[in-house]
Design goal:
alpha/beta; 9 helices; about 35% helix; globular
Length: about 300
């Protein structure tokens, strides 16, 4: 990233001043939607649907593979965000991967605290399987809280006896709601988006008085054995850097194939800046390649999965 690009990006990200008094969840949702929403890219059709009992947005690129499907879980601290706010990012990933994609509008806190989001992620995943999607034709992705939720969903699927998908990719995942990562403090001055107080406020709303180290709330503390190949992308200039690093380390220790991709000088979920930032386009291209490569590998020379009825 050039010096001019970095200066422009930092100025854009810092343009919304932080308040000492946090806005209400509804105010946060409205502000987040106004700041981040981008429409689905040209050539990606969208359609409202329902998956796992929750509203969802289907995104279908003009050119798609025969069988592959992508399940996406959006970010927003479990409090804000929706498939609409992420239509641009998800549509761009879907377009590059050539995958029919569904983005789930899982329940948000504080109205529906933990484990509501995990229950919705699992219900969506289960419905894809029982309606005929072979797990070897299915990949999962998510950003920020949605990255943590992607891992938690697969942990819940494992505990429910469901097969794992072909691969999972997460962008700037939030996987430790105890906020134990050193970068929560050491990177606060470099992070143009989040502070420790911001993350603590989201955790308060999502987990309330519950156990913040619960493996489905903070998957960095989980046994990840049996999860599929994992790609973790993160920016070096974000407070969640250590979440990503520790998640990759935990996965490796549990014998999961894992790739950790750290972008120097980049902020939280920098992939949102595709088309404006070369590093964002390159990262999405790598993520698309990772997902489609594992789809191809999973289908070679094996019988198809038949869901139980």
């Amino acid at each position: 990233m050039s010096r001019q690009q970095r200066a422009a990006l930092d100025a854009m990200l810092r343009s919304a001043p932080r308040s000492e008094t946090p806005p209400t969840p509804e105010e946060q949702r409205t502000g987040f939607a106004a700041a981040i929403t981008r429409p689905a890219p040209e050539g990606v059709a969208t359609r409202r649907t329902v998956l796992g009992g929750r509203p969802a947005l289907e995104l279908e690129p003009a050119v798609v593979s025969d069988q592959g499907r992508l399940l996406y879980l959006h970010g927003g601290g479990y409090v804000i965000g929706s498939p609409d706010t992420h239509a641009g990012l998800v549509g761009e990933l879907a377009r590059r991967a050539g995958l029919r994609t569904v983005s789930v509008d899982y329940r948000l806190a504080p109205e529906d605290p933990f484990p509501a989001a995990v229950d919705d992620g699992l219900a969506a995943y289960r419905e894809l399987l029982v309606t005929g999607t072979d797990p070897r034709d299915l990949v999962v992705a998510g950003d920020s809280a949605g990255g943590g939720l992607s891992i938690a969903t697969l942990l819940a699927a494992r505990e429910a006896g469901l097969p794992q998908p072909a691969a999972v990719a997460v962008f700037s995942p939030w996987v430790d709601l105890t906020l134990a990562g050193e970068s929560i403090r050491s990177k606060e001055g470099a992070d143009p988006i989040f502070s420790e107080a911001d993350l603590r406020a989201y955790a308060d709303l999502y987990v309330r008085a519950g156990d913040r180290a619960h493996p489905l709330a903070s998957p960095v503390f989980a046994d990840l054995t049996g999860l599929p190949p994992l790609l973790v992308q993160v920016g070096a200039n974000e407070v969640l850097l250590d979440d990503a690093v520790r998640l990759a380390g935990r996965a490796g220790a549990d014998d999961v194939e894992v790739t950790l991709d750290i972008g120097p000088g980049l902020p939280h979920v920098f992939q949102h800046h595709y088309g404006r930032l070369d590093e964002a386009d390159a990262a999405l291209e790598r993520a698309a390649h990772f997902l489609t490569t594992h789809l191809s590998t999973g289908r070679q020379g094996t019988d198809r999965f038949e869901p139980a009825h």
